[in-house]
Amino acid sequence: MKITETELDGVKLIEPQRFGDDRGWFTESWNQSAFAEAGVDHEWVQDNHSFSAPQDTLRGLHYQTPPYAQDKLVRCTRGSIWDVAVDFRKSSPTFLQHVGVELTAENGHQLLVPAGFLHGFITLEENCEVQYKCSERYAPECDAGIRWDDPEIAIDWPLAGSPILSDKDAAAPLLADVKSPF
Fold first, then answer.
1. What CA–CA distance (Å, rounded) separates 156 from 175?
2. Which tens digits make up the pLDDT trace of 117-170?
3. Omega cis (within 30) before 93
4. Which residues are catalytic?
């Protein structure tokens, strides 16, 4: 396993090792002791799995407020996505900076997104599945988001067309209307 720090403190790109032969391949997407040895020591309490049929499905930018703020370990198990983490920690030197990485079923990479970050992704092709582990349960009373196209964050999403959004994401507030709880 290879773990690379990104330019944002705490966001890590994880490249699990794959063992393959003529039948296919095998990988450990999570091994508590191996990850802990590499400095990724989280207790996961929930696994989520999403399916997005159309290309340009955009989910985000989401976060949960304390006391149910979530660390997430994200991977794409079918298709390809561009996964984004935005630092939403007021005291951080990288506040409102973002990083984006391509996660694909083929490359098997994972992105560790710590609590205190906004998270979102866009599907780069049709029929994508994304799975991610969370360090806290889903708490509807703590569920929040920021507009995917907020000009202050200025994410250059790799869109092939117009984004396909949920009603909730389309109505998310701008940063100017939200105070970070982190």
1. 17
2. 999 999 999 999 999 999 999 999 999 999 999 999 999 999 999 999 999 999
3. no
4. 62, 132
